[in-house]
Amino acid sequence: MDDEDRSLPEPFEVAEALWLHAYQTLAARLPPATDPPRPRPAAWPDLPGAPADPDAPDGGLPDGGPPSGRSAVPGADGPPPPWTAGPPGPTPPEDGPEPDHDTAPAVAPRPGPGADTLPAPPPGSPADAPTARRVTGRLALLREFPDDRPGAEALPDLPDAPAIARALRPLRRRVPSATAYELDEETTAERAVEDGFWLPYTRPATERRFTLTLVVDDHATMAVWEQTVAEFTAAAEQSGAFRDVRVRRMGPHTPPGGEPAAAVLRGPAGSPAELVDRTGRHLVLVLTDALGPLWRTGAGTRALETWAGAGPTAVIHLLGQRDWHRTALVPRRVRLHCPRPGAALAVAFPPEEYDPFDPPPADWTAAVPVLELDADWIGRWASLVAGEAPDGTDAPVLLLGVPAPEEEGEAESGPPDGPPPPTVQERIRRFRSHATPTAFRLATHLAAAVLDPRLVRTVRHRFVPEAQPVHVAELFLSGLVEEPARGTAARPPLDFVDGAREALLAGAMRADTARVARSVSDFFGARSPAARSLHGALLAPEEAPVPRPSDEELPFIRVELAILRALSGPYLTRAHRISSALESTTAGASFTPTNDSLVHDIRDTHVHSDTGGPSMTDTTASQHQREEGGAVNGTPAHPTSGTPTPASGTPIPAGTPIPGQHAPGVHPSRPPHSAVPAVWGSVPPNNPNFVGREDLLAQIREQLLTGDTSAVLPHTLHGMGGVGKSQIAIEYVYRYASDYDVVWWIPSEQPAMILTALTELAQRMGLNVGSEANRAVPAVREALRRGEPYDRWLLVFDNAENVEAVRPYFPTGGTGKILITSRNQEWDRVARTLSVDVFTREESKALLRRRARDLTDEDADRLAEALGDLPLAIEQAAAWQAVTGMTVPDYLRLINEKIAELMLELVPSPDYPMSVAAAWDVSLRQLEQRNPAALQLLQVCSFFAPEPISRSLFNNSRTTTIAPELDEVLRHPIKLGRAIREINIYALARIEHRHDTIQLHRLVQAVLVNRMSPQQQADMRHGAHLLLADANPNSPGSRELWPRYQALLPHVVVSRAVECDSPWVRGLIRGMVEFLHMWGDHAGSAAMAREALEIWTGKFGAEDQQTLEMAKWLAFTLRTLGEYQEAAAMMERTADTYLRTAGEDDEGTLDALIQLCSGLRLRAEMARGLEINRSVYERSLRSFGEDDPASLRAAHSLGVGLRLMGLYREARAYDTETARLRSLTLGEQHFDTLNTLSGLSIDIRETGDYLEAVAHQEDVYARYVTHFGEDTPASLGCARVLAVCRRRAGDHAGALALSEAAWTKFANRYGHDHPDAVACAANLVVDLRQDGQLRRSRELGEATVGRYAAKLGEAHPYTLSARVNLAITLRHLDEPAGAGEHLAAALPGLRENLGEDHVLALTAAIGAASQYAAEGRHEEALELDRATLEVLRRDHGEDHPTALACATNLVLDLRALGRDDEATALHTETLAGFRRRLGEDHPATVASASGKRADVDIAPVPF
């Protein structure tokens, strides 16, 4: 080329220049960024009535960028540039998966249909500009909903958002754009060379195939899901799967003229038809909770029908599948196919899903899948729509356009009368029984608030941070919330039905109620005078002015009234003032005051109290319900007449139930089931070499399908070891997994293994229980029995050899199935049994030839005959053949030679034929030659349980000495891996790489043990013990380490580690005993401790240090189990041994003496126990100092002893100092610190400061719940103390709710005879009497007396105290003879045990005097009351409430004898004392003023 030619540019240079020009031109059009990038908001702003954000920039965008789906380039929405010439270049493929890199189009695509916009701002506002009107609604997320906590960051409501974004990736397909073009550089350059003209050539740019419109239901209940919807929107955008993501809101609209309700899209384009796109490139996802009128009227389903006929449409149901049947959308299960990407879905009805009572419709127009908001559900739908599921998928769908059934005579006959609506009390009870604890706790908080969506979110995040929107939805489904009539815009969108708010507050902690009330005041104080005054009303109820009633203030006034009545005490006066103001104003005329008896109004009521109080009675909800109101769950709060049905097309008035009838075309049916189990766990991997057994599998399936549905009848696979029972069960589970919602594998050789499996199942089922077995196991059995949340379940109890030990863990009912594998024939008595025999010959040959393909049929037949067709032996022999290639005659010769040797060395085993032992021995000898350490590893493992052994067990043994070859392998991970690989080659163990475990079959273990000499057995067993000791987690109280203890436990038991002499192994046993107790397996802990104590005492003597430690643990566990006499005797023996061997000042001795004090209390030797407490405390101070944990433990025990002897003032002084030192030494939230603080609450209460005690204990209880959980035994024990404090402070309803909850949980978890359950029952007897439930109080009181007598004896103070409480109930039941009998035994008994001046004896004396008065023996009553009052005033003070109660009774004695002047003077003095101590409105003060005789109960002080 000459110089002139070289002056021209090369083609690639021209292409680069054109590309650079296009890039710079586009970049110049982009507006410069002036603000730093902002994070994406997390919630939706456009809720009804939400205020505008005053800080938003005028006409600007929240994130400083253009709205999604709009181009930032002027003219980008126009046609291709006019300078484009020539034919287009090569066209991209029509459709296909996304390439590895993204190519940005040169021109942005044109907006699709239905672009979302914000409503126009008011005229004259700064935002009234064209640019502001173009801003899409989803770019203003949560600007109007700031979190009122400074610096607080809301937890995500959609924690699996990244997984959902990944699940949408199948939709990331690219197609040629119809509107955007890009420069075809290659074609431009080629044509320039060919034609000599530099004209640019273009081609269609590629773009995402799909756009997505999210249609959000705008019903009031959807407000709680705004953050969830926002996070889902962000996940959809970040997935990169869509060309555009738009958000629209949809609600119902009832046109005039009686036409049917229709769905409308909020915004300028109101018709759902605006979203119709028949190109197959537009997806519609509807997000809803299906509770609103949009679905009850059928308007929503008609919109779905419109969209589904044009393109892929689905509903994301925000509630869990278990609750779908309670909403207006209940789909049916079908199989869906998508013929091509973006096409309409084809429907098929699987035969197994056919329901003769609800057959599929014959005709429909569209099928819309219903999805959970879950990555798995959304991923399967995305794969289906993208055409990546050629076999289709099972899914629940709504079949739309189904003709409505014709009903004759419908016009003539009105709707049948339904059952009467449930009362509020019934709804509360139902809600408490069905709701999760978190949902109920959240409901008690929200009852103190206006149900404004923003405030609901604030309360949830601040006070119940673990709550999610689904917990709010549980409240909406409870029937306790309604959508009230919209009189003014000031009304909240939702409100509680009448009586519900008060009933929920009765079960709330008063401190929580006050905290929420302060939040309400802070949240709305700037806008509402009534809300602003609420804060002052809490601080000074008498001084704060009463808010002026008006329509705008009425919601806040009603909330304040309910809060004041719930807080009771000094707040009741203000409550009466507010109630009077409401009744006397016009604005309050529409307000229906709540029935007094439901909200703790104690005036003019019959009094039964420990020191006087109201008798509570149930009040039906119909007394409190508004006629136009309705409940969110679809049951009207009050029956109405003449209400038009949705099908009639008549407008539905506000205040009607939220989810009423099912929408037209949506027929209710059973909840749909998943194609794969929702809960799947612990199932071993399926065997890839499984052969045969088809007849057995068919029989199992037939039995499980045709079993009795009225009870759970177990089905058992029975056979000798090695025949493949477990393998058959595994194969069945994998084949028919889709039949079940829950499939759970339960190793059952030991009870602890069953507990472990069921505890994990409870967690996986989301039962909201802790990790303690005694909490989780009863909960999971009950959930399976009820079929909630899953009714199709299969439990496999593997290796269940002990019938009586396994049966208690079966669910007692339900629609699930139980499959058992066992060698025990006794299962024939209680189960349907299938016998499992060895392989058929053809099955044996099939397995042999699958593993060793060169075997001839004849050789396989000979080998199977020699091994007796035992599946386990066949598997091992097949592995031998595959590895060695030895001919079958040579192998059989080796087996025969080995049989001859083994006959001389071993006793034949009944578990397997000698030929099997010989075949295994051949493999073991070969393994020994190749890798001696591998054989030794097997020998050690033969003493473990035939359960998976974690490989980590061998990684902690670097200093353990077992055998030279094995020791070296254990110190080198590579050599250990090689040894395990050698074992796997010969099929001598099952290696599971997924969990990194090794497992030996019990028959292989038996062969290994039998071929070892006694000395080898002892050495290898000891080696197993040392490996277990090296793996000791050494922290039984740490919940995060409990799985490690659970994994070790079966091997500790089977290896007989309890017999090992090593102190390290004995330390492991001690840790296991402690772990079992902490975990909740108290019986298992006691059994292991008892066995260890017996063995160790025989081996090492009773004075051995570790033996003594085990004795203390056994005594402690026995006391927990209620075995009081044995526990007390063991405590005394242990203390005597310590004193004899270690001396008085030894730390172990002092600890044993503290435990002895507990034993003496069990024997009613309170005085002797207190004497020892004082001595131990003094010696601990001398030896360790006041702030040492040992001294603090002694101080705490001293406080308990002082309380039990009635020395509350001294106990209060000690406990105050102990709590202070424990807070400094251990921390304010430490368990021991909180334990002492709970005891201090009792001291404060029993010294007469009732109001201070309840405030103190409310705080302690809140800290227990926060740090240990609501349902732990420690928190329940704290709740028991708090219930008594509430009762003494006058909060009888709160006391009853808490007391009954604690008793129910203890009884359900441990049984009614458990000590904690009995103690709770003793308190509940009093609370039931206060509530007027006298007969139930008597029944529970009699049972409590019987249980105390059986465990502690007739003369124990606890038994006698229970008799005093029961006598009060009997006296109110007009059964004086029974009451007198109990008091005749209790009073002298308490005086003899505790002394005449003990407060319990004085309390019994008050009861006896009341009994005398009831019998007309007024002189005796006067004498006894006068003597009792003298001692009470002397020892406890004149203003002590118990002394004042006794004085009240003395006044009545004097009046009965006609001594009115003395009575009046004493009454005046007593009333003044009550008012000073408890306040004017305390139930005891009111009772005394009204001349009611006081009943003083006894609350047992915890040991």
UniProtKB/TrEMBL annotation:
Listed Gene3D superfamilies: P-loop containing nucleotide triphosphate hydrolases, Tetratricopeptide repeat domain
Region (Disordered): 30-131, 405-425, 605-681
Ranges of Pro residues composition bias in the record: 33-42, 77-94
Every NB-ARC domain range: 694-852
Low complexity: bias regions: 43-60, 104-118, 634-660
Record-level Gene Ontology MF annotations: ADP binding
DUF7779 domain mapped to chain residues: 927-1016
Ranges of biased composition (kind: Polar residues): 612-623
The name this protein goes by in its record: Cytochrome c
